[in-house]
Amino acid sequence: MRTIELTCDPAFDRAVRTVWRTLADGGVDSLADNPHPAHRPHLTLAVCGDLGPERLAEAEELLAGALPLEVRLSGLLSFSARSRRRVLAWGVVPGPALIDLHRELWRLLAAEPDPNPLYLPGRWMPHLGLTRRVEPDGLTLAHRLLGRHPDLTGVFDGARSFDSNTQSTRDFFI
Asked: InterPro entries recorded for this chain (predicted)?
């Protein structure tokens, strides 16, 4: 599996990590302690079976022309994660620039193998992950810890691709 992701500028990254830490310190299995060395807050735009070097270069060019991109995070989302476990995420308000970028990226990826249908235009729910897979009581605790979760405006200023086979990332624009 290969992803295309947007990454946060330093201030946005710190703000999301603060929420991760609040959850972890309160006893929720958040993303604060993910051991992968390249783990950081990100917005996944696309997931496919594989992406060759040519397609990655085209995606990088498209993203370079679209960033930096300001977005607003608003509201908490919960996604099923097998069995009764759930994942908690912070919703990204999909403004016109983000929707257009997402659509254009998928035009580039149209012929790529095994696209994940949850990331296709019309089905994609843009979000930044906050927790790992948690039981319902963990989800309840997360809501209690975060209370009325405020909106946050931030900037995506970078992009990368993650390869699940090698567990490696390729940063764009370097």
From this structure: Cyclic_Pdiesterase
Nearest C-alpha neighbor of 4 from the set 75, 59, 65, 62: 59
pLDDT (tens digit per residue) in 14-31: 999 999 999 999 999 999
All structural domains of the chain with their residue ranges:
2-171
Predicted TM-score (pTM) above 0.90: yes
Which one, of 117, 145, 134, 39, lies nearest residue 78 by Cα? Answer: 134
Grouping H, G, I as helix, E, B as strand and the rest as coil, residue 86 is strand
pLDDT tens for each residue of 72-84: 999 999 988 767 8
Maximal C-alpha separation, the chain: 46
| Domain 2-171, CATH | 3.90.1140.10
Angle between helices 53-66 and 96-108 in degrees, nearest 10? 160
Across the strands, what pairs with 90? Answer: 76, 128
Q: Specify whether the CB–CB gap between 7 and 40 falls below 8 A.
A: yes
If phi > 0 it is left, if psi is from -120 to 50 it is alpha, else beta; for residue 82 that is left
Alpha-carbon separation of residue 79 from 8, 75, 90, 107, 134 (angstroms): 22, 13, 11, 26, 10
